[in-house]
Amino acid sequence: MGNKTNDRNWAAMERLRFIEACAWWKGIVNRQDLGGLFGVSMAQASSDLQRYLEMNPAAFVYNLRQKRYEATAEMKCVMTVPRLDEAVARFLGSELEGIWLGCPDAGEGAGDDRVAVLRMPMREAGMAVERRMFLAMFNGLRVRVRYASVNSGKEEWRWLRPHALGHNGARWHARAWCEKTGEFRDFTLSRIAEVEWSREHAVPPVVDQAWQEWVTLRLRPHQDLSDEQRKTVERDYAMRNGVLKLKVRKAMAGYLRGRLGLAMADGSQPLRLLAEAGP
User: Running DSSP on this structure, what letter comes out for residue 23?
Assistant: First the structure.
């Protein structure tokens, strides 16, 4: 009775999820896997395996010769939605999350030799800048920042009233009311050299409609592609009836369009924007 698996217990649930992940991605699972990772007895590991089989009888079968459970081709996951990035992190020791957020440990030399990833340039602000901008956004504060504009090439002080944060896949920006221009703008955090400490509450004078409004981008393969290329693009982007629909805040739509403008080997574009409409 002491080794019975209680699938309502958090630790037991984690072991059952691990069993499912092992079977799905590695194709095999045994008691030693559970014992080594979770520090449970072989008896408890056996109970966990049996409990999972009760939940998902077609998941795997026991190989007497190898003394291990082997996954079936017909296996379906009942506890999780399988994700390749999680499998890479769990079983190959290569974290993919940091790649997109500029983690210095991602890329060359990280994890398993069977995994190669691009290490994107880091675009981060200083810790003090990030902290003070987050505090200002979270608490509705008016802050004075020293900001470097790429357009003007100048660095200047200005008053901002940040109300949201956005991430375009490469860097963070603050969505803020700019008192100098009298409008909402995006301020890249890595371009902020300094933020003065503030406790002055001041919300934006008007609602940021571009942030509040959602739009749906409808995309399809570019008209210049061949039928074979078009079918490949449709499958690559999991299109339905030849169209990809992506819902995004209107203020973030430009970033999404930029991220999707991926050229093919011959320089052509695989996607074409059909329309931008309300939600």
Answer: I
**b/e burial code for range 129-138 (CB count within 10 A of at least 16 → b):** bbebbebbbe
Q: Count Cα atoms within 13 angstroms, Cβ side, for 275.
A: 4
Helix (H, G, I), strand (E, B) or coil at 1: coil
Tell me the residue range of the domain where 242 lies: 213-277
Is 138 a member of any domain? yes
In this structure, the strands spanning 68-71 and 28-29 are: antiparallel
Give the amino acid at 216: T
What is the tens place of the pLDDT at every residue in 218-245? 888 888 888 998 899 899 989 999 999 9
What digits encode the pLDDT tens for the residues 79-122? 999 999 889 888 887 655 444 333 434 444 456 788 887 777 77
**C-alpha to C-alpha distance for 259 and 141, rounded to whole angstroms:** 31
The Cα–Cα gap between 11 and 7 comes to 9
How many Cβ atoms from other residues are within 10 Å of residue 215's Cβ?
20
Distance (Å, whole) CA 200 – CA 264:
50
Q: Which residues of the chain fall short of a pLDDT of 50?
A: 1, 97-109, 263
Same domain, 221 and 271: yes
Cβ burial, residue 250 (10 Å; 0-12/13-18/19+):
middle
- 234 and 196 within one domain: no
Written as six digits, the tokens of 160 are 């901002």
Distance CA 113, CA 27 (A): 20
Position 5 scores a pLDDT of 60
Which residue bears the tokens 């069993």? 19
